[in-house]
Amino acid sequence: MDAPAAEITGRETARAAEATAETLIAAEGILVRRGRETVLEDVDLAVHRGEIVTLVGPNGAGKTTLVRVLLGLLWPDRGRVRRRPGLVVGYCPQRLALDPVLPLSARRFLELAGRSTATRIAAVAREVGLAGRLERPVHHLSGGEFRRLLLARALLRAPELLVLDEPLSGVDQSGQLELYRLVRAVRDRYGCGVLLVSHDLHLVFAATDRVVCLDRTLRCVGAPRDVARDPAFRRLFGARVAEAFAPYVHRHEPDGAP
């Protein structure tokens, strides 16, 4: 049976909006092998200016590998990555090992990130909620404060694309919600695109524009409400997890939707 005209129109509108949006970075047909093991296969991913794209998947799905390919830190065995010419990227890694005996203050940590004035560092610190923490040793910061510090370092570059690899690692639940709100505020203020890697699905579904489910290859892609209904999402994360998002889907349906 042919699709209803309204459904066709909706798909065409979505395609047209994506086509006219400024693409910051796009991976096409990515294949990565390690010996005989295929880590990524036939993966496409694009991030546009002003949107938050969240990459989810089980452990070993290839999320960090895909991020490394996008950043040019790893060359794929097949496929290509297209970046907007002159693209400025701010990157927050999943882990950053610092010697705990190193006498490094938060301010000095930011100064080492590159050429930034004291005024700019103070402004970014206020922006991420660290205005009163700049003189504290880095290893005395809480998990949430350290994540904010990494975000501040990335923002010193005034990025057009912000890449956050598991930004909630080591952060308590209340701090996670505040960090997601901060990421949205940063997106709105800078007009940048955001690529976020996370395993916390509840916060992801509340804070992102588009969800990409990866398990070595793409399983489902779309708006949170659409991905929550996708059978591939249910297979990937289990029926119990999928059902947990039913209230979210209902709350975010347009008025009059079934």
Give a structural overview.
This protein folds into 2 domains: 169 residues, P-loop containing nucleotide triphosphate hydrolases (Rossmann fold, 3-Layer(aba) Sandwich); 62 residues, no CATH class. The chain has 11 helices and 9 strands. The strands form 2 sheets. The chain has a 6-stranded mixed β-sheet with strand order 5-6-7-3-8-9, sandwiched between helices.
Q: What is the helix content?
A: 25-40%
Q: What top-tier CATH class of the largest domain fits best?
A: Alpha Beta
Strand neighbour order, sheet with most strands: 5-6-7-3-8-9
How many domains comprise the coordinates?
Answer: 2
Q: What is the strand content?
A: 15-25%
Count of alpha/pi helices: 11
Biggest sheet architecture = 6 strands, mixed
Unreliable runs, pLDDT <50, ≥5 residues? 1-20, 249-258
Query: How many angstroms separate the termini?
Result: 21 Å
State the fourth-level CATH superfamily of the largest domain.
Answer: P-loop containing nucleotide triphosphate hydrolases
Radius of gyration: 19 Å
CATH architecture of the largest domain: 3-Layer(aba) Sandwich
Topology:
Elements: H1 5-20, E1 23-34, E2 37-48, E3 52-56, H2 63-70, E4 78-83, E5 89-92, H3 106-111, H4 118-128, H5 143-155, E6 161-165, H6 173-190, E7 193-197, H7 201-207, E8 210-214, E9 218-222, H8 224-227, H9 231-237, H10 239-244, H11 246-251
Parallel strand pairs: 3-7, 3-8, 5-6, 6-7
Antiparallel strand pairs: 1-2, 1-4, 8-9
Helix pairs in contact: 4-5
